[in-house]
Write a structure and sequence with these properties.
The protein contains 19 helices and 27 strands. By secondary structure, the protein is of the alpha/beta class. It folds into three domains: 2-181, Alpha-D-Glucose-1,6-Bisphosphate, Chain A, domain 3; 185-407, 3-Layer(aba) Sandwich (Alpha-D-Glucose-1,6-Bisphosphate, Chain A, domain 3), CATH 3.40.120.10; 409-542, TATA-Binding Protein (2-Layer Sandwich). Strands 2-6-5-3-4-9-8 form a seven-stranded mixed beta sheet, with helices on both faces. The mean pLDDT is 96. Bound molecules: 1,6-di-O-phosphono-alpha-D-glucopyranose. 1,6-di-O-phosphono-alpha-D-glucopyranose is lined by residues 18-19, 113-114, 281-282, 321, 344-346, 363, 365, 367, 486-488, 496. The site of 1,6-di-O-phosphono-alpha-D-glucopyranose has 17 residues, from loops.
Length: 543
Amino acid sequence: MSEHTVSTQPIEGQRPGTSGLRAKVKTFQQPNYLENFVQAVFDSIGDISGQTLVLGGDGRFYNREAIQTILKMAAANGFAKVLVGQGGILSTPAASCVIRKYQAFGGLILSASHNPAGPDEDFGIKYNIGNGGPAPENVTEAIYARTLNITAYQILDCADINLDEKGKFSMGDMQVEVIDAVADYAALMQELFDFDAIRSLFTQDFSFAFDAMHAVTGPYAKVIFEGLLKAPHGTVMNGEPKDDFAGGHPDPNLTYAHELVDILYGEDAPDFGAASDGDGDRNMILGNHFFVTPSDSLAVMAANATLIPAYKKGIAGVARSMPTSGAADRVADVLGIDCFETPTGWKFFGNLMDAGKVTLCGEESFGTGSDHVREKDGLWAVLFWLNILAVRQESVEGVLADHWVTYGRNFYSRHDYEGVDSAAATQVLQNVRDQFDSLKGQTLAGRVVQMCDDFAYTDPIDGSVSENQGVRVLFEDGSRIIFRLSGTGTSGATIRIYLESYEPDTAKHGLDAQEALADMIDAANHISKLPELTGRDKPTVIT
Ligand code: G16
């Protein structure tokens, strides 16, 4: 067993995006691509000698090979110990949980989230810091800067570890401990929620379908829902993780989770349906013939938090990403707590949670979570909803109808245009920017434009500034149209248009969101010239 220093050269394009470095598997398989990035991480995060690293991924194609390489590099770079999930598996929230529980220095999570997997699809890697959360921008920028001047990486020349066997192994001077991927996470969930109440719900006339979408949450969901909570066998659909996600696109939304959606909107539909994504941090919540927008889900959680054991004393505050609807703000207002508006990206919530300023966080991109870990957490959100339903003994639709009576309804939708030519996408946003001055005071979609800007955020804890986080058109009545380019895609550009309008009138709450927002959608197309520039007459995905 010997330690090698291998010469290398910088590789272009290794700047982490919204959530780490994502690229095609074939790109990651290029000589030194993975190694350069991992060495850049190890060179940028401080003194790692004698420290513990957590390592795991969503099980997608290339996960196992990448883990073996990273273990050998961790050993050569001086880590004392690596905790790795059995089979190389750790869902993103489970990795966050393990980093925190064992006070590790940080963790490397291998995932491209909901992006398809397989030899011709996507792979990804991100570094999480010691609080369990995604590295903040100053760290990811330091990693990127290092990728630009890297000249060598360190690696141990040794045999692979058997990732399928739990136990402690040696790799040079470093210890590798292969841990149960589910146990620590399942234990944490039992501390937070009333498992007795949820178990009793399953003995009643209540049916539930959970779609793991052939991705990482299958084993977690089977242990928690069918094992600990005694939901009927078969509650978990598509629960066998596959390295290509069975050819699917495990993004829990109305388009890609259509198998579950068809069941919840079919005959004899279950009372409750939920899905999670590739790496287990996103969630979609459905009732019988009913869809809960992620923005509303966050608001309902905030309003009902005291029904849950972990939050029974109340929540410190909430935070939402800027494009997420203002539904949670209304709840925060009534509760007399702060509501923070951050840029898109879970990494922006970490400081607020560490400072004790927020307990619950959420994003329109099907992410909700709390300060129990520092990632969004799909199964946590499902358990939160099950606990609410167990206590309130109402349907999902009933809970929402009641919520809207109290707080009004923020009609909300996101339109995604995927795989658009990058120059055209940039121009769509620029067209709106060019009208910032002239739009102000104009009437669009029957509403008066109050102001337009490029969203910028100053972190209230460390004062760091993040600019150009989305183009906003804000109306006097609180309605909003927001344009953003996705930071998680790997081919072409994805334009996201976020549309929101507030409706206090209960008589109008039953409207379909696309109907309620139709004039806003027309206005967005008109001011951006999106149809003309992209040649698209409809979005790829509507949520
Ligand atoms: C990631 C981030 C989220 C973000 C989402 C969408 O989620 O963690 O904070 O909201 O991407 O980002 P974008 O609009 O830039 O594509 P995930 O689940 O992909 O890791």
